[in-house]
Amino acid sequence: MTAEPAPFRTSVSDDVLNDLRTRLKRTLFTQPSDSVYWAAGVDPGYLRELVAYWAEDFDWRAAETALNAFPQYVAEVAGRRVHFVHLRGRRPEGVPAPLPLVLSHGWPSSFVEMLRVAGRLADPAAHGGDPADAFDVVIPSLPGFVHSELPREPFTRRGVAEIWHELMTRTLGYERFGAFGGDIGGGVTQWLGALYPQDVAGVHVTSAVITEQFDDVPPTADEQTFLDALAAYDVGDQGYSEIMCSRPDTIAAALMDSPAGLVAWVADKYRDWSDCGGDLETRWDKDTLLTVATLYWATGSIGSSFRQYYDYPRNKPVPPITVPGAVTLSHEPAFADFPRSMAERTFTDLRHWSTPKRGGHFMAHEEPEQVAQELRAFFRPLRG
């Protein structure tokens, strides 16, 4: 494969789908460990219902058609295959060229997370917006996720930012672009701003990734209160990350062999981290959830998606970011009451700070109109 992007279509063979359905129909289910719904993880009753729907009623071919309505490509970048959606902005006569914008997802997510906002960004006029706010939207799959290959070196957020910069500048030929992301994608987005201020117009994150070590300036009282609350939250939430950080191949062996186990592992975090009030399907209907799960299954990439956890200690704190910065804070437990002062430790030019109290870890999917409006507002003065 050369650096020239090649058109790509999502396609899963009938043999893979038939094997998937056979495995789903033979699933063995556990009994709940707690009488409180979802208190001990994915509720076995809900999982039974979800697995039955996946095996009998979920229409993958319809999902496949919907995915392929977006222009997808693969290209060799930094010696590895990168998959991405490239949706060019609508440019009426007399309107300046759309600003290129790279959207980076996190875990346990995929490029699907960004699709609901993509059209709003590329063609704002079709959604009641100003055509001058159009973006050329690029949505890469993180290395090791679905159709993108893992890097040969350790997976770090800085390393992914270097890949994304090559994708945007050398592969796609953009001289200047903006960046947006949350979770892992938020870290990648921050590194893009830190490393390439000459090329990056601005960076916008939803989960304010913490990389400050507080060596030089101790945390303020508000910052310490937040850090203590985050540590307390992690006590009940971090079991998934402990095993993926220390024994990723062990849990991957189970999830690569059991689609029910895979969707349980993913759905647990979708419910916990979405702004769904405990009702997962208010944010992720079964069809969308199973689209993501089928992509992980068909590509055999659930295990490789853990690499960024195993390699996490190799990440370094992000240096000061001098390009314009924006935060639209996700409404999820881990970032409740995140103080603006912590963002200002990293962003030396924080121009946009918003706490809408809507949209969780997967904000671009959960609140696409909100995200589109926030991105338009932030980047509007940076388009020159």
Automatic annotation (TrEMBL):
Q: Which keywords fit this entry according to its UniProt record?
A: Aromatic hydrocarbons catabolism, Hydrolase
* InterPro entries reported in the protein's UniProt record: AB_hydrolase_fold, Epox_hydrolase-like, Epoxide_hydro_N, Epoxide_hydrolase
Q: Where is the Epoxide hydrolase N-terminal domain?
A: 6-114
Which GO MF terms does the UniProt record name? hydrolase activity
Q: Which residues form a coiled coil?
A: none
Give the family from UniProt: Belongs to the peptidase S33 family.
PANTHER family (alphabetical): EPOXIDE HYDROLASE, EPOXIDE HYDROLASE 1-RELATED
* UniProt name for this protein: Epoxide hydrolase
Species per Swiss-Prot/TrEMBL record: Streptomyces durmitorensis
